[in-house]
Design goal:
13% strand; binds ligand GBH
Length: 491
């Protein structure tokens, strides 16, 4: 029987956290209200309306800036104890810099946090979920080494303002996707097509910014605020296309080294720094391509030390699995680029369901393998928890989202196996996402919410989908009941 747990205990442990995730730019709207400054997504989309598939932008989004009390009610109805959300940097620092603090923006988040806490929902706050203030973007964003200081200034403001009630912080959401899509592929804002160079500068200074903030918190805030700080990485699981071919097995490893370990190793390994494989690969490629230096910058010894151990948990976003085989050149690759440096052709199994978006095919065992990979490669996670900070799937706008119900059941079931059978130290799970939102360059087309949002209504009406009811049942019972929501039989 597929769903018989061969373990004595089929519940999530007592201390396992259930939560739900959002990001400021994707839901708030109110882009120019109450003194907010512009983020690069505002500025870029106003200048390039065709950048998003539906020519939309984040001006109004789900209007959470005004409807936050509704958001809180929705979170409560899910029966979860934690809410992972992000602060819009430009809302509290309109120019990005700490010389000018926007009082109204400060009040907005203060009120939101207090209202959440009143109903026993713990906010977990991300400082950067992709919305760089425009003045810094004009200076090169994360590719400018000075951003490290300015990000620290912003973080200090946030810790001072909210650290009395916010005890879990994450610095940056998915540095890998942000640098890859934003500074390399240029399919996300800032749309800088500096593939092979910009994407590694972004990686380098984002990692250093994270470390700087972690060390500042440790020194200036932890002694009295007593909270934790971490980072959220992302990873697709990577399986060999043909599990019997040595070169496909090798390609699957290469992918994880270049796309996950490049970020994880400097922070979570015993030795620190970029993994040797990544260093050698990019150095060799750079040499062959006649660069007089490696396209991957070097950390100093002090920087390696500052980064190593700079996260109190392993935040992990996971959505889908790809099948890998080696390749020297694919049509869509730019040269140089992280894709070309990696040298791996990525495919998906056409028989896996794709209920929402093309890139996301459903393969639940991937999450179990990913968590095991992290546990096996980073021994530190025996001491710090792994938190699944995002996991979810798209739909086409229907309320009866049976595919999402099964998605959550099946991925969470694999997580249960990872916990009980593989003894992985996974301590929390955050569904992506609370409600349909602005999905970056995909605009409002893919719907990822547990709640549907009617973007055509002035009120941005929210309606629970079936998956909301199902997730609530899981969160309240701490068990997966595969029969709780039954798809009507077709006659
Ligand atoms: C997450 O990233 C984000 O953290 C979150 O903000 C977002 O809403 C969520 O995904 C759901 O999309 O269309 O082939 O160009 C997940 C990583 C990066 C996966 C962009 C999809 C687009 C692939 N995503 N990628 S493609």
């Amino acid at each position: 029987l597929k769903y018989d747990l061969r373990v004595s205990n089929n519940s999530f442990p007592e201390d396992f956290i259930f939560g739900v995730s959002t990001a400021a730019f994707q839901i708030e709207g109110a882009w120019n209200e109450d003194g907010r400054g512009e983020s690069m997504w505002d500025t870029y989309l106003h200048q390039h309306p065709n950048f998003t598939v539906d020519h939309s932008n984040g001006d109004v989004a789900a209007d959470s800036y005004h409807k936050y009390m509704d958001d809180i009610e929705m979170i409560r109805n899910l029966g979860v104890s934690h809410y992972r959300m992000s602060i819009s940097w430009s809302r509290i620092l309109p120019n990005g810099t700490d010389n000018n603090i926007n009082h109204m923006g400060v009040i907005y988040y203060r009120t939101l946090f207090e209202e959440l806490l009143k109903v026993n929902i713990t906010p977990i706050v991300t400082l950067f979920h992709w919305d760089m203030p425009t003045p810094f973007m004009d200076l090169g964003g994360w590719s400018n080494p000075k951003i490290v200081d300015y990000f620290k200034d912003y973080a200090r403001v946030a810790f001072n303002l909210y650290g009395d009630i916010i005890k879990t912080w994450t610095t940056i959401n998915e540095p890998h996707q942000h640098c890859y899509m934003g500074y390399g592929l240029s399919t996300y804002v800032p749309a800088i097509a500096s593939h092979g160079i910009g994407e590694y500068l972004c990686t380098h200074y984002i990692l250093l910014s994270h470390a700087r903030v972690y060390r500042m918190y440790e020194k200036e805030f932890r002694p009295y605020q007593k909270g934790v700080v971490g980072i959220t990485l992302d990873a697709f699981w990577s399986d060999p296309k043909d599990p019997n071919k040595a070169e496909d097995i090798e390609a699957a490893h290469w992918y994880l080294k270049m796309h996950l370990d490049m970020y994880a190793h400097p922070i979570y390994s015993d030795t620190g720094d970029y993994p040797d494989f990544v260093r050698e690969r990019i150095n060799n490629m750079s040499l062959q391509q006649n660069y007089s230096r490696s396209r991957l910058p070097y950390f100093t010894d002090e920087e390696i030390d500052a980064l190593r151990g700079s996260s109190d948990f392993f935040g992990l976003n996971h959505y889908t699995t790809y099948l890998m085989s080696p390749s020297n050149m694919e049509e869509k690759w730019k040269v140089p680029s992280i894709d070309h440096d990696t040298g791996v052709k990525m495919e998906q199994n056409p028989s896996w369901a794709r209920p929402g978006t093309e890139w996301l095919s459903v393969h639940p065992p991937g999450i179990r393998k990913l968590v095991n990979y992290v546990q096996a490669n980073y021994l530190i996670v025996k001491k710090i928890p792994i938190l699944i900070t995002e996991n979810g799937v798209g739909d086409k706008g229907q309320i009866e989202d049976y595919e999402r119900v099964s998605f959550f059941n099946d991925y969470l079931y694999q997580l249960l196996l990872a916990i009980h059978q593989d003894h992985c130290n996974v301590k929390g799970y955050f569904a992506w996402t609370l409600m349909d939102d602005f999905e970056w360059s995909d605009g409002y087309v893919p719907k990822f919410g547990l709640y549907k949002v009617d973007f055509d209504s002035p009120n941005k009406t929210r309606t629970p989908k079936l998956s909301a009811k199902n997730y609530e049942h899981i969160a309240r019972t701490r068990k997966i009941d595969f029969n709780y929501i039954q798809r009507p039989l077709l006659h």
